[in-house]
Amino acid sequence: MHVAHYSLPLCRLKRLRILGQICVPTVTGDPNKVGLANVNLRKGVMPSEGKWQFFAGLFLICMCGLMLQIIETRILSVIAYYYLAFFAIGMAMFGMTAGSLFVYFRESFFPRERLFENLVWICAIFAIAVVISALLTISIVITSVSKDFDFLMTALEWGELVAILAAPYFLLGWQFHWR
């Protein structure tokens, strides 16, 4: 068991996780600080015989996510306004964060014992979501602001664009958040 000691103020002492490891309180010499023993509980997450396949798959899925970001920035700069290219990057970060938070708060849906099986079906759904997202992104029409500005319709169009662009990255966030 690997143990490392950290020192934090008493007011910040709660159930903490540092680098995915659980920290428990310990006593230090300073009365204003309480130490934290960092206990590594990551035994048996990934079998040793499948590591190279896991890392090869992780490399490929990261490459697919990066290529999707590049393609979406190009598509949005052509079919809409040129500055929407930055919007695509923001939606990628939003989607991956939302997906990672989903896995973090719903740990029971993703048991560690079924790591490879979960990654296989998540990759398959990601591939389908990429195709659907690309087709919907190409077919969406962003209306320009005119004198007949309808706030509700514009908000619905932007909400639709957010959902279309963030959906594949939501699944990508599922794959990146394995503790």
Give short descriptive properties of this protein.
179 residues; alpha+beta; 2 domains; disordered N terminus; 4 helices; single chain; 4-stranded antiparallel beta sheet; 13% strand
**Low-confidence runs:** 1-22, 36-42
How much is the radius of gyration in Å? 22 Å
The major pleated sheet works out as: 4 strands, antiparallel
**How many structural domains can be distinguished in the coordinates?**
2
Q: How does the helix and strand content classify structurally?
A: alpha+beta
The amount of beta strand, in percent, is 5-15%
Average per-residue pLDDT, rounded, comes to 75
Q: Helicity level, as a percent range?
A: 55-70%
The helix/strand order is EEEEHHHH
Number of strands: 4
The shape is elongated
What order do the strands of the largest sheet run in, or round the barrel if closed? 1-4-3-2
**Number of helices, counting only DSSP H or I runs of 4 residues or more:** 4
Q: Report the end-to-end length measured between terminal Cα atoms.
A: 17 Å
Question: Could you walk me through the main structural features you see in this protein, from its secondary elements to its overall organization?
Answer:
The chain is α+β, with helices and mostly antiparallel strands. The protein has 2 domains: 37 residues; 129 residues, no CATH class. The protein is 56% helix and 13% strand. The chain contains 4 helices and 4 strands; from the N terminus they run ββββαααα. Strands 1-4-3-2 form a 4-stranded antiparallel beta sheet, with no helix packed on it. The chain starts with a strand and ends with a helix.
